[in-house]
Amino acid sequence: MAGCAARVPPGSEARLSLATFLLGASVLALPLLTRAGLQGRTGLALYVAGLNALLLLLYRPPRYQIAIRACFLGFVFGCGVLLSFSQSSWNHFGWYVCSLSLFHYSEYLVTAVNNPKSLSLDSFLLNHSLEYTVAALSSWIEFTLENIFWPELKQIPWLSTTGLLMVVFGECLRKAAMFTAGSNFNHVVQSEKSDTHTLVTSGVYAWFRHPSYVGWFYWSIGTQVMLCNPICGVVYALTVWRFFRDRTEEEEISLIHFFGEEYLEYKKRVPTGLPFIKGVKVEL
């Protein structure tokens, strides 16, 4: 499936994904339909069926495969906005839904704009890993159970707001890193140096050696703080810390191989940005 995106005319993926993301987000108009007489569930079912029928009519593979993913994420984002403004104990979950869908869509959009040569359907990161999926499901289950049995645990405004700020900071830092790195950024750790691969040390890379990982680290923990999930909050912190420790070491081995002394000097000057993670140890 990843190869299908490569047959779409260059430069059109960003426009296509943005148009269909906004189409999906038009679910924000659903309350107007329900006021016109449609029941909530009926209106939602008809809306989803109508969106898919429109996409099938407008696009053929591989464009449909891009469109359906972007539209789905836009739809989820729109639902998250509606939930955020609802007068219920689920409004903070709406914040989370918006954050999650926007993160995955923006990963694809920024890659399409910034480094189209590495673009594929996998750039949405929807199939990141089994562990990522299990972690997300676990956080949903924890929030639901605690919201049912201990609803007061989910009504801590200052904590949810802190989590939201962590998410916004993490998202902005990661996207700034992607834009700064340009064509040097890739979702997959590279084992071979390309002709255009250069060592980026400016912008946010002057603050942290791995700003995209720092952003994702605080974004992922922030989602659980925002949900007031005590169990997943601790588990996420430990799990993502270990993941990025291993990922940082793996990537730095390649970077030392690619750039040699230039990277070692950069490594001495600039920290990873991740707490208690120094990167790969170099024997002198």
TrEMBL record:
One Gene Ontology MF term: protein C-terminal S-isoprenylcysteine carboxyl O-methyltransferase activity
Family of this protein: Belongs to the class VI-like SAM-binding methyltransferase superfamily. Isoprenylcysteine carboxyl methyltransferase family.
Entry GO terms, CC: endoplasmic reticulum membrane
Record-listed E.C. numbers: 2.1.1.100
Name of the protein: Protein-S-isoprenylcysteine O-methyltransferase
Subcellular location: Endoplasmic reticulum membrane
Membrane topology, as annotated: Multi-pass membrane protein
Gene coding for it: Icmt
Transmembrane spans: 16-34, 40-59, 66-85, 216-238
Coiled-coil intervals, chain numbering: none
Function of the protein: Catalyzes the post-translational methylation of isoprenylated C-terminal cysteine residues.
Species this protein is from: Mesocricetus auratus (Golden hamster)
